[in-house]
Design a protein that fits this description.
4% strand; mainly alpha
Length: 377
């Protein structure tokens, strides 16, 4: 039973006859018919109706179960990687040498990402409620690895410190190396920016080059996938230039992404604290840039407290108050748009697991730390 091209056809489930033509199956053959010994023979593939798959990777089932438990699939890039991309110069592939904020902000993003992935949360203790949000203790609720090297390293450190839990503020300081305790210096995450950049190289977003800086050579990482960075810039600009309370679809990640509204909020707030948000506003006019910065300051103020949206009107970071004073001095007395920001708060609350979600409380605490980053540095 060989075809003209040299291929052979294998019959399954019934006796073959040399008198049977190649194009017609033998009389005793059926796709899922009974075999002579009484067992049911099934085709070894899924091309025929009733066929079964040869094998199944159990990790696929675990991923589907995890996505359904966490409310969606994990995004391709973490919040740390997106903030780093906003700070990188597209063609040169390095960050500004004068940016002292991004390292501290990236450590805060690590805690936010772990909280969104339901690995850590605040300790459920009624006595802790009286403490400031940034001083509340953090615990590991799931030590399963995430697949991201930096996240797994931080999670392992926090799991090893369960006997002596530390606060949000304490963990951001330790991961950044900002501690006077010599015994805790080993908790510092080193070379976070370089490791994130190499991870983006592995994902095909960046590429590695070597540049000469007068006295020394340094590895740089120019942008290789421009569309990925453009999508991040578009999301940030769309969120901060929206004029209605509804969240524009262009400000969010792909449909089905886990906590995509919360991730959009954390992205702009972390980029704002890291002093890289202005890189996304290159195409905006001066007035639009100031309005976008003002809106971001309002978003950060509303989400750096618990419950979300409970801040008093007029509060915000020092930079936002200065910009508001400049606008008033220029004769612009338009409302700040807090109502539209509260609409964003409602969308985030829909992604929470109840009103007392300890993971989202941790996110609020990290954003509170980032909102005071200017005074810390």
């Amino acid at each position: 039973m060989s075809s003209a091209g040299g291929l052979s056809r294998r019959r399954v489930g019934g006796p073959s006859s040399s008198s049977t033509s190649d194009d017609a199956p033998s009389p005793g053959w059926t796709p899922n018919g009974p075999s002579p010994n009484g067992t049911v023979a099934t085709h070894a593939g899924s091309a025929f109706e009733g066929g079964s798959k040869i094998a199944c990777d159990p990790r696929d089932l675990d991923q589907v179960e995890e996505d359904s438990r966490y409310g969606g699939r994990m995004p391709r890039l973490t919040i740390m990687e997106e903030v780093l991309l906003l700070g990188l110069k597209d063609k040169h592939g390095y960050l500004s040498f004068w940016n002292d904020s991004i390292s501290y902000a990236l450590r805060g993003c690590i805690l936010i990402e772990l909280a969104l992935r339901r690995r850590i949360a605040l300790v459920k203790d009624s006595g802790q409620r009286r403490s400031p949000l940034a001083d509340r203790l953090v615990e590991v609720i799931d030590d399963k690895q995430t697949g991201e090297t930096i996240l797994d390293e931080a999670l392992k450190m926090m799991k090893g410190q369960e006997s002596d839990r530390m606060s949000i503020n304490g963990w951001v300081d330790l991961l950044s190396g900002e501690t006077w305790n010599v015994m805790k210096i080993g908790y510092q995450l080193k070379q976070v920016r370089e490791r994130l950049a190499k991870g983006l190289v592995d994902k095909g977003v960046l590429r590695t080059e070597k540049r000469n800086f007068l006295l020394f050579d340094m590895a740089t990482h120019p942008v290789a996938d421009v569309r990925t960075k453009d999508s991040i810039v578009t999301r940030a600009v769309s969120l901060l230039t929206a004029t209605t309370s509804a969240v524009p679809p262009s400000a969010l990640d792909k449909e089905g992404t886990q906590c995509r509204v919360t991730r959009a909020v954390c992205l702009v707030c972390a980029a704002y604290a890291a002093s890289v948000l202005d890189n996304a506003f290159g195409r905006l006019t001066y007035e639009d840039r100031e309005a976008a910065f003002q809106r971001c300051d309002e978003v950060l103020a509303e989400f750096a407290c618990w419950p979300f949206g409970s801040t008093t009107a007029g509060s915000g970071s020092g930079g936002g108050r200065r910009r508001e004073a400049v606008k008033i001095g220029m004769g612009n007395t338009a409302p700040s748009g807090r109502e539209s920001v509260l609409g964003l708060v409602q969308e985030v609350k829909r992604e929470m697991n109840g009103e007392e979600d300890l993971g989202f409380q941790l996110i609020a605490g990290v954003l509170e730390v980032l909102s005071k980053l200017d005074s810390l540095l």
